[in-house]
Amino acid sequence: MKKLVLLRHGESVWNKENRFTGWTDVGLSEKGVNEAIEAGKTLKKEGFHFKLAYTSYLTRAIKTLWLGLEEMDLMWIPVYKSWRLNEKHYGMLQGLNKSEMAEKYGAEQVHLWRRSYDAPPPPLEESDERSSLNDPRYAGLDKKDIPMTECLKDVVERMVPYWENDISLNLKKYGEILVSAHGNSLRAVVKYLKNMSDEDILKFNIPTGIPYVFEFDDDLKLQKDYFLGDPEVIKKLMDQVAKQAKNK
What we know:
Order of helices and strands: EHHEHEHHHEHHEEH
Strand order of the largest sheet: 3-2-4-1-5-6
Distance between the termini: 46 Å
Low-confidence stretches: none
Shape: globular
Oligomer: single chain
Strand content: 5-15%
Radius of gyration: 17 Å
Number of strands: 6
Mean pLDDT: 94
Structural class: alpha/beta
Number of helices: 9
Largest sheet: 6 strands, mixed
């Protein structure tokens, strides 16, 4: 049996402030730190012993991984970082409050930008200070791979090759892998692994700091998937994610 654990980073400072974050690099809130620690404790209690881990280039995911691995006494394992696991780029919405944008543009339009499968928000200008073009962590990337905006379809398209050519191969080899990333990059993984429709993935929410386990046979055929925790609590947390962009 092969096990993949997906872990959405703990609450970030901008999650707490209900802002669109995307590729902007922000830290964890105090609650987010605690969520990451608790995730590590849960995974240790459940007997996981990862051989390697993956994360994005963004601090909130990296620190969540560190804190979780520290609780498991596994900070020594190899960790691979990739921009392909970064959050969806929210274009000109990055840094702006979700509820305020719903008031300005209408809840329906913001919901479309936020959760549509193939309708990205308006892009940033390359000269915008929020652009990642001059961020040193992406200096080795082709300019075309540094987005000015994205929809979930774009995130799926950049994630799938990484799964097929890297993560899945190591999962077969090592048996247990942890991926600490973001709401949309992890939804892209979920969509691909569960063969979910474009419509169904839009209704699926991943709460912060709750380990999500996928079990596969030796040929990586999915056998089952489940969150670790109280189902009622997890449902409430998933509902909270869905309501983030509603008007105040």
